Amino acid sequence: MATSVLPPSSEHAAAPEVLLEFPDNRLLIELCGEFDRNLAEIEQRMGVQILRRGNQLLVHGDADQRQAAAELLATLYERLEGGRPVEHEDIDREIRLDRSDEEGEVGPDRQMEMFSGGAVEIKTRKKLVEPRTDAQKAYVKNLYEHEMAFGIGPAGTGKTYLAVAVGVSMFIQGHVDKIILCRPAVEAGERLGFLPGTQEEKVDPYMQPLYDALNDFLPGKQLAKLKEEKTIEIAPLAFMRGRTLSNAYVVLDEAQNATTMQMKMFLTRLGEGSRMVITGDRSQVDLPRGVQSGLRDAERLLKQIPKISFNYFTAKDVVRHPLVAAIIEAYDADEASA
Questions:
Q1: Cα gap 304→103, rounded to integer Å
Q2: Helix (H) or strand (E) holding 37
Q3: For each successive 10 residues of the chain (338 residues), what is the average pLDDT?
Q4: Quick check: 170 and 122 in contact, CB under 8 A?
Q5: C-alpha to C-alpha distance for 11 and 58, rounded to whole angstroms
Q6: Potential cystine with 258: which of 7, 90, 140, 262 (Cβ 3.0-4.6 Å)?
Q7: What is the spatial distance between Cα 302 and Cα 312, in angstroms, rounded to a whole number?
């Protein structure tokens, strides 16, 4: 792809153009989006004008804005060249990350672009999973490199999803013999006893996010067989007591709802050849008033151990609907001003 800065035209005397040339017209169509909606969004959010002429895009605007828009278009085109789609969420994420850089909020994390050439992919049976932000890339790198890793941050940042994806990938490659996923069975306003059915049926709704992640990575029949063989286990945290977990990939989700004693019990289950991932959101503790979150204690006590990694996420790493990031930022701002 070629890029050049053109001198001012008579129509845009005060605003020089950046000319981008794209060799693959099919990918250019995907970049522009249906009815050029991707270009329209970039124009609106970055304060530029983008004109399409054949296989070229001309970007008009102030120097900083047009350069940022041109770099964004080039980045999105590279995604398409790599066989990855460009969705509304990808455009939103790239714009937010670019603004984070300008505000000094990302800083050294940009070095993670060097990890696997900036493109990190996790292979599962059903799909390739791509960590999209720098924090997510650093997190995935630590999941592969450390026997125990913590992922801490708000909802929608991919903590659990990426952890399960790495677990499935390591299982497929034969690095571990089984996958164990667990959560504290703590209610957020409801009580387990009010739910109908057996103990397993009562617990299942609390495990559903873990089932959803596994269904994204493994074919239904294979997943059912692995569960039946106990090669994949999904269970409440309490079921881990008394076990030694060897040659297993173990994920504790919603760890902020584990008590200090439960967290200690879980962490000391680590056996030979195993890996543990602990994910949680410190702002969503559902424990009774006065009960200390085991996640906070673990963070305080274990942070100085070099073989344990801690990764942190913010609203900038949200990969759900863009409104989720705005909602998290609003709550964070309110909490900071309280």
A1: 29
A2: helix 37-46
A3: 50 64 90 90 89 89 87 88 80 66 41 45 85 90 94 92 94 92 69 54 73 90 91 88 91 94 94 94 88 93 93 84 76 77
A4: no
A5: 13
A6: 262
A7: 15
| Alpha-carbon gap, residue 34 to 31, rounded angstroms | 9
In one-letter notation, the amino acid at residue 217 is F
Bridge partners of 56? 21, 53
Distance between CA atoms of 268 and 85, rounded to whole angstroms? 42
pLDDT in tens, 87-125: 877 787 677 665 544 444 433 333 333 344 455 778 888
- For 65, the token pair is 């804005």
Q: Which two tokens stand for residue 150?
A: 């913590």
Distance CA 334, CA 143 (A): 33
pTM (predicted TM-score): 0.67
- For residue 312, which amino acid is it? Y
Give residues with Cβ within 8 angstroms of 294, minimum separation 6.
Answer: 255, 258, 259, 260, 261, 262, 263, 264
Burial class (CB in 10 A: 0-12, 13-18, 19+), 258: buried
Q: Which amino acid is at 304?
A: Q
Q: Distances from the Cα of 23 to the Cαs of 14, 78, 81, in angstroms?
A: 29, 12, 11
Beta bridge partners of 123: 128
> For the chain, how far is it from start to end, CA to CA, in angstroms?
50
The backbone torsions φ and ψ at residue 191, rounded to the nearest 5 degrees and listed phi first, read: -120, 140
Instruction: Report the pLDDT value the prediction gives residue 13, as an integer from 0 to 100.
Output: 44
